[in-house]
Write a structure and sequence with these properties.
Its main location: cytoplasm. Belongs to the class-I aminoacyl-tRNA synthetase family. This is Lysine--tRNA ligase. Its EC number is 6.1.1.6. The N and C termini lie far apart (about 65 Å). Helix 7 crosses helix 10, helix 13 packs across helix 14 and helix 21 crosses helix 23. The protein folds into 3 domains: about 280 residues, 3-Layer(aba) Sandwich (Rossmann fold); about 55 residues; about 80 residues, Arc Repressor Mutant, subunit A (Orthogonal Bundle), CATH 1.10.10. The longest helix has 20 residues. It is elongated. The protein is α/β, with parallel strands linked by helices. About 40% of the residues are buried. It has a 5-stranded parallel sheet. The protein has a 3-stranded antiparallel sheet with strand order 5-6-7, with no helix packed on it. It contains 24 helices and 12 strands.
Amino acid sequence: MSNSRELALASKAWPFEEARRVLKRYEKAPPEKGYVLFETGYGPSGLPHIGTFGEVARTTMIRRAFEEISDIPTRLICFSDDLDGMRKVPGNVPNQEMLREHLQKPLTSVPDPFGTHESFGHHNNAMLRRFLDTFGFEYEFYSATEFYKSGQFDEILLRAAERYDDIMKIMLKSLREERQQTYSIFLPIHPETGRVLYVPMKEVNAKDGTITFDDEDGREWTLPVTGGNVKLQWKPDFGARWAALGVDFEMYGKDHSTNTPIYDGICRVLGVPAPEHFTYELFLDENGQKISKSSGNGVSIDEWLTYASSESLAYFMYQKPKTAKRMYFDVIPKAVDEYHQQLRAYPTQDLAAQLNNPVWHIHGGDVPVSTLIVPFGMLLNLASVSGAEDKEALWGFIRRYAPEASAESHPDLDQAAGFAVRYFNDFVKPTRVYRAPTEAEREALVELRAQLAAYDGPVEDEALQSIVYAVGRDRFDPLRAWFGALYEVLLGASQGPRFGGFIALYGIPETIALIDKALAGELA
């Protein structure tokens, strides 16, 4: 066994812990199907949102970890439940009135409100695939509509008809008495209206593979359960899909966790072992509300990518998946800088530490070199004090700070400079609040100005930080009150960068001019 595999088998990184659970399924014999199957499900009732990205990113991380510890081939299926009836009109799409006319129809039978695809389901599937492709995920796309209509699901649907009573027993335990009276695991698709019907069954005929029911007008129908005439309710569908595909691993949000025994039970009743699962905590918006794809709250994928790289988003997803996290615009700068800190640490680490580093999991072991020599937080402060309207204005400062740097040699830095200007103008500028210095702070600022004016040493972070530190150490206890004053008085922010590094980047004469403005009351 290679050293890398040994270390991976012992790694405490959560993707390796999950991968080891999947591997344990096959410690006696390899899978009969010839591969291990990872699945991620998607309900295409609205536009793809950031939680969907997180699910695929995290599943991919576990798949990569599995490939490090095992030679069994793997597949990842992204399954879209697009035969689901449209129960409500999403609030963030056009042509709401038109959509209302098609309520309860499968999403692939609802016209596309954007007018670009065959149906609303096809449009949302295309959006999902577009962003999965943007991030370079390796996956196979499955549509529930095709899965049901092509006959791929027929064998399991016929088995569900055979074992109808056993599956119903599992489901009825979880339902209120009132719902139990009318519940069926099968949802017929009306042959005339095309709507998904929630109606009780008059008969389930396992021998013929048919169901008989009355529609809303009291007319009796008999339909085959096969060929896309009938779909399963979503909880039975979950377990049946696992059985039909032979799924080995699927993760889902905490809101599904109480259903796990139901999904597992149905899968087993259908004669297939239940997969491993991983329950992650939900993302919250700025107000602590769950992010929802239909209401469009929180941060969308496109919004994150307006202000930062996809790798920083993957880094955010890697962190503590079992902890609920606020996901709003203010988490972006920290995610960018921490991601690059981990990139810089990676080459200096031994193999065990590298396997525990988030960037190994983000890049599947093929970790790039960071060229972000100025932190994103610092670029934001530079945009703030310089009034930069584009990244070229920031490059004027960067070139003086690091003459060897260019957009070509430091692509991360060039990209981040553009993102920083955009982020500053949209989020920082509208909320900046400067304040006037107190008497003690004014005295310290006058001293800092004098020291900077007299300084003739190298324009380097550490040397300048020593000056800032020395001025504050004699006057402030605790010292952080001095740095807080610098940020609030000079930058209009509650927190900021290492100030010596900021002076080196912005320039000594420019910092002196900034202090003069603050002392003259021109900022507050």
